[in-house]
TrEMBL record:
Domain ABC transporter: 2-242, 357-585
UniProt xrefs under CDD domains: ABC_cobalt_CbiO_domain1
Membrane topology summary: Peripheral membrane protein
Protein name per Swiss-Prot or TrEMBL: Cobalt ABC transporter ATP-binding protein
Organism encoding this protein: Streptomyces vietnamensis
PROSITE patterns xrefs: ABC_TRANSPORTER_1 (PS00211), ABC_TRANSPORTER_2 (PS50893)
């Protein structure tokens, strides 16, 4: 159905082609998964199928890509619209109408389908993707995951022969991701649809794939075969490789069948690493490290950078925390001037001591939606908290109130003792930095180098700090690239580096793993653990259960605007299959959550 014949793609300024001599055939009626490290060219390959590359991205394509016999170089995307449905990494880029229902109908309208058919398919899709309650909603008011569902729904309704999906589950909660994959599988089985999808969270998708393509070499084969050689693989495969299981299991179920000997050798042991998994010290008795910090209000890292540099750029007096030129303070970076606020207060032993964040009975109304209701939350310096919960539960809203972008409707929010919404941005950025769900919102310079220079200057950091962070997270990002032309993972790495350069006492991350391969994620985890050990508080909203298991001291689950669980990661995640990492499911009832822990214990 899809053929690549000797295809190479080179973007204008690049010395090397992004894709080189790719020869592949994706058969009709199969679900084929495209995998490979961040920035390797997955989106480029998908774009060559949908016609976006090179028509909209620039660059040159040599060789031939055909879809059902149509050459994508001579057929621009609109001439492929009846054949290929495409969802890119940024769903917002696709929307052509204003409301959910109109968007689901749009593709069918342009193909001239009968009104009765359109109506039926819209209703079906609203149900399948859990969008029924949102049918009249303006798309602009949807959460990230809700938007991704609409984008997927809008390409499903016309029943195209070919679906091309770029990280389609990246903003979805775990059960929505399962729903979407089940729908795709049904289209493949029942209608013979051909699906080509790229994904980083292989734990979610590999079991649905008929075949897997691994870049950069563009080898294609059965999932187990490719997973046995792939540098990117899900935890179940990593555990299988560690334990020497052959053939490699791809599902939790298969792995459980082989796990008895491994469980026997782990019997009686307890996880000792990684540090991120141990309950946070202030939840128990105060550890020496915190005592030391209490006595010295500025951690060494902050002192080292001194007081030089100007306040991070922001529109003077801009409030609420703006976006755009002069990096948003809400999204900005601090130099730790506010660390005196961390001085410990004497409290009863056994209770949380410092709290950097105190949220009390918070309610937030957004238009007609009660996005948060009576939320209480405390976060101490040195603590990493993962916010989890369904799409639209209120996670991003909570992060936005912590950074002053949204004003509480009821209740109070305090960060380092101040109300973020009424704190001048210039002061707030010393306390809080946010990596937003859409990293694009944070970046405004024309090149990676300029972005990093600005970040260093804003933070008063030694020149080169931000650039070193970028290299640490994801190597091979060129200085002169426009942030717009970066791959999704590269752009996120840059946004993370920009915010991490400021080392804010409170670091907020909204879904910080989109586009990141497992190795980059591991480097991010290592970095964040170091920051937490230095006394920074980290709050991240994430659907990535594997990330939460590796990083968070505590997990807070939000449902329909309310906190429904708040406790140590190991306790909270294993109490619900939807939030359990693969290793926990395989080795239950033993207490292991990550491959790293198992490896350390063996
Ligand atoms: N329009 C463009 N102009 C110039 N270079 C580009 C453009 N689009 C992508 N690139 C470059 O091509 C390379 C591959 O990008 P691509 O988005 O295809 O990777 P990817 O494998 O999808 O990455 P990710 O996993 O991060 O989504 C990257 O180095 C990127 O910087
Ligand atoms: N600007 C807005 N106007 C009206 N309602 C909004 C607006 N932004 C978000 N909402 C609604 O508020 C609720 C909470 O949204 P929020 O973005 O906080 O969810 P979330 O938990 O971060 O979701 P996701 O996991 O999909 O990112 C959702 O029902 C959403 O549709």
């Amino acid at each position: 159905m899809i053929r690549f014949e000797n295809v190479s793609v080179r973007y204008e300024e690049d010395a090397e082609p992004t894709l080189r001599n790719v020869n592949l055939t994706v058969p009709e009626g199969e679900l084929v998964l495209l995998v490979g490290p961040s920035g390797v060219g997955k989106s480029t390959l998908l774009g060559a199928v949908s016609g976006l590359v090179p028509h909209f991205t620039g660059g040159t394509l040599t060789g031939r890509v055909t879809v059902d016999g149509r050459d994508t170089r001579t057929h621009p995307p609109r001439e492929l619209a009846d054949l290929v449905g495409t969802v890119g990494q940024d769903p917002s880029a696709h929307f052509v109408t204003d409301t959910v229902e109109d968007e689901l109908a749009y593709g069918m309208e342009s193909l001239g389908l009968a009104p009765g058919v359109m109506r039926r398919r819209v209703e079906e899709t609203l149900d399948l993707l859990g969008l029924a309650e949102l049918r009249d909603r303006p798309i602009a008011t949807l959460s990230g995951g809700q938007r991704q569902r609409v984008a997927i729904g809008s390409v499903l309704t016309p029943h195209p022969k070919v679906l091309v999906l770029d990280e389609p589950t990246s903003a979805l909660d775990p059960s929505a991701a399962e729903d979407v994959l089940a729908v795709l599988q049904r289209l493949v089985h029942d209608l013979g649809t051909t699906v080509l999808l790229a994904e980083h969270r292989l734990e979610r998708v590999v079991q649905y794939a008929d075949q897997v393509i691994l870049l950069p070499d563009a080898v294609m084969g059965p999932p187990a075969e490719i997973m046995s050689i792939s540098p990117v693989h899900p935890p179940v495969v990593a555990l299988g490789r560690l334990a020497g299981w052959a053939p490699l299991p791809l599902t939790v179920r298969d792995a459980r069948r082989r796990a008895a000997p491994l469980k026997a050798s782990l019997e009686g042991r307890a996880p000792t690493s990684p540090a991120g998994l141990l309950p946070h010290p202030t939840r128990n008795t105060a550890p020496p490290a915190l005592e030391a910090r209490g006595a010295n209000p500025a951690p060494p890292a902050f002192e080292a950078r001194g007081a030089g540099g100007s306040a991070p750029g922001s529109g003077p007096g801009a409030s609420p925390a703006p976006r755009g030129p002069g990096r948003s303070p809400g999204l900005g970076k601090g130099r730790g001037g506010g660390f005196s606020l961390f001085r410990r207060r004497r409290t009863e032993p056994g209770t949380p001591t410092d709290t950097l964040v105190t949220v009390t009975a918070l309610g937030v109304r957004r238009a007609r939606v009660e996005a948060l209701r009576r939320v209480d939350l405390q976060v101490a310096p040195g603590e990493t908290v993962a916010l989890m919960g369904r799409n639209g539960a209120g996670k991003s809203t909570l992060l936005s109130t912590l950074v002053g972008m949204i004003e509480p409707t009821t209740g109070t929010v305090r960060v380092a003792g101040r109300a973020p919404h009424s704190t001048p941005p210039r002061e707030l950025i010393r306390q809080v930095g946010l990596v937003p769900q859409e990293p694009r919102d944070l970046l405004y310079a024309d090149t990676v180098a300029a972005e990093c220079t600005a970040a260093d200057a804003d933070a008063g950091a030694t020149p080169g700090t931000c650039r070193a962070l970028v290299d640490d997270l994801l190597p091979e990002i060129a200085d002169d690239t426009h942030p717009r032309d970066l791959s999704e993972g590269q752009r996120l790495a840059l946004a993370l580096a920009v915010v991490l350069t400021g080392r804010p006492p409170l670091l907020l991350l909204d879904e910080p793993t989109r586009g990141l391969d497992y190795a980059a994620k591991a480097r991010l985890v290592a970095h964040l653990r170091t920051l937490a050990a230095d006394g920074h508080a980290i709050v991240l909203a994430t659907h990535d259960v594997e990330l939460a298991a590796e990083l968070a001291h505590r997990v807070v689950i939000i449902a329909d605007g309310e906190v429904v669980a708040d406790g140590p990661t190991a306790e909270v995640v294993v109490s619900s299959p939807a939030f359990s990492p693969q290793v926990a499911k395989i080795l239950a009832p033993q207490p292991w959550l990550t491959v790293e822990q198992v490896e350390a214990a063996l």
